[in-house]
Write a structure and sequence with these properties.
alpha+beta, Immunoglobulin-like, TIM Barrel, five-stranded mixed sheet, 10 helices, 20% helix, globular
Length: 421
Amino acid sequence: MLSRRLLLQAGGVALLEATLPQWGQASPLLVRPKDAFGRARLQAKFGDTHAHCRFCDGEPMVGFSGHITEPALVAQAGLATNHYFLITPHAEQLSTEDVEVLVRLSAQLEADGQLFDWGMEWTGIPDEGSPAPLDPAYVKAGGHVLILRSSETIGHHVQGGEPQVRAGTYRELLDRVVERPWMQLVFPHPELYGVETTWDGFAPPPDARLIRQGVGCELSSHGPRGYQGPGDVSKGVRASNEAGWRLLLRRRWRPGPFGSTDRHLYPYEPGPWTVAFLETPPHGRPFTIDHVYQAFAGRRVCFSEAAGAYARLVGWFDEVTTNVALMGDTIAPRGHRELWVAADLESPVPVESIQLIVVAAEEAQDITLTTSRLDVNPRAFGDVFSVLTLKKLGAVAVYAKVRLADRNHSQLVTAPLFLEW
């Protein structure tokens, strides 16, 4: 057992003392996330998981009459600054001809070795007679949901498109998706919507199979107030995407943290990003878009507001182990005494702080441990959690959050280790 004398109390937070083995040295006591991800042959790829083209509300809302938002041009701009790129028009606004254009574009870019695909955004039905039918404030049910890996358009009947599958309510949408287990769902920017109606009041998944399909929640949004990032959790879900994500975790969903531009107006500008950790194909084969979806399915993702920056998280039990869990894994702490967690950062700019966060069953019992001294290794942070304490809290997840020392105080959030009791 590692002596607690080797832990230092600073501001009430337990930090790894400088006398512990350094991260760069081999040690049975500490696991470097970089090494664990390397053994798993995972590579970080930056991408935009939510962008629009002329096939939805962006162009008519601003009166464009040119072709700057043509799907091919949007894809070209997105792929110039991202490793992978997804166009996600509003399904209820797509015509049959629009879908054919997207299918051809995907096939062409895939043949060229590009990591590109199209999905769609399902939008809750606006109130009848709404003065602003596309304003989220007038959406009476559902919020928005991104649908990925679908060859069918799923939408409602309101906005003049020709959806192949009708889903007039959020619950109907989930029913259609669970019938198609290959599909993936992402919950966009919860801070834009009211908690009472969004996703049926952030309801738990009505079918356990949906837990696997609900791969992500956006920690970025782009609304009337401009860009909103994770936000201040203490202000609640109406002001914080991160608080909305945590609420989904408490309600038994298991989404990873996503970042996107949700770009409607052009020229296209990259960031924030969903960093997906893709498993390296064998025998030198190229990556495909399926590798991206596999990373989503495994929750091997990190939200990032900074170009070239990403964070990783690993965990293991009872101090000395060869069985290391990567972020996105579901672990069962039963029968163990302690959960060890380690995070690290790859970034072109210095780090301001790294936090480890425990999401408890009740919001008031969430735990946040913050590095207040970074002289051991400024890009790594580890700590130990009592399994008994985690159980008493009804903890559902542990994740890492990083704030960079750039002028924007850019943030990064890792996918959690999901806890199963």
